[in-house]
Amino acid sequence: MIRGGIVALAFGLASSTAAAGDEVASLRDGHVEITPVAVKDSGTPMMVVRALVASPPAKVWAVVSDCAHYAERMPRIVRSALLESHGNVFTCEVTLSTPFPMPNLTAVTEATHEVTAAGMTRTWKLVRGDYVFNEGSWDVRPVDGGGSSLVTYRVHAEPKVPVPGFLRDMAQRKALPELIARLRTEASRIP
Questions:
Q1: Which of 48, 124, 152, 169 makes an SS bond possible with 139, Cβ 3.0 to 4.6 Å?
Q2: pLDDT at residue 60, as a whole number
Q3: 102-121 CB burial, b ≥16 within 10 A, e <16
Q4: Distance, CA of 80 to CA of 70 (rounded, Å)
């Protein structure tokens, strides 16, 4: 659900041309760009995922900003809840289903939402849970006169249990594109 004054600002983004044509040209065919980025003092890379979503930013934002409904809208999420909110800060609990033999992973995170004329950003950090660290962001910017969205998802997370290299590779090849595919579907369903 989009809260309060965000609706007016989000729909005002429709006239924005924040993302340059060159920046999205390689994504126009539905391609999902996945880039591992080294993080200083960490053996785990940050994964950066970029894609175009053929829905206005307000609809994409309605999906990525609403952690209470991640279990219904995001792949591999088996449980999600909004624990509390204060202004633009949201504390969420999300449980991720993982492949056998790993246990499901739960994180309580604190997310800050920012909505500006240039776009919308949800940035989170770990409060507690089954991770050594879990931080990242969703960034949603208008393209094509606001009829579509350039989405950038960043995640830098390491569970407390060891993750075999093949599972990490699977996340890069399968789970991240699946996340974008589901986001495209869910955003298209927002009225």
A1: 152
A2: 98
A3: eeebebbbbbebebeeebbb
A4: 6
Residue 93 domain flag: no
User: By the 8 A CB rule, do 83 and 108 touch?
Assistant: yes
Q: Does 98 score more than 50 pLDDT?
A: yes
Consecutive H or E run containing 143 = strand 131-143
Identify the CA nearest to 156 among candidates 49, 47, 50.
Answer: 47
Instruction: Count structural domains, the chain.
Output: 1
Could you tell me the sign of the dihedral formed by the alpha carbons of 71, 172, 49, 131, in that order? Answer: positive
Q: Which domain holds residue 35?
A: 6-66+112-189
Question: Domain holding 38: CATH number?
Answer: 3.30.530.20
Specify if 18 maps to a domain.
yes
Let me know if residue 82 belongs to a domain. no
- Residue 171: per-residue pLDDT: 66
Residue 5 exposed, middle or buried by CB count within 10 Å (0-12, 13-18, 19+): exposed
Least reliable range by pLDDT among 9-13, 56-60, 182-186: 9-13
Higher-pLDDT residue of 9 and 127 is: 127
Mean pLDDT of all residues belonging to the chain: 87
Share of residues in the chain with pLDDT > 90 (%)? 68
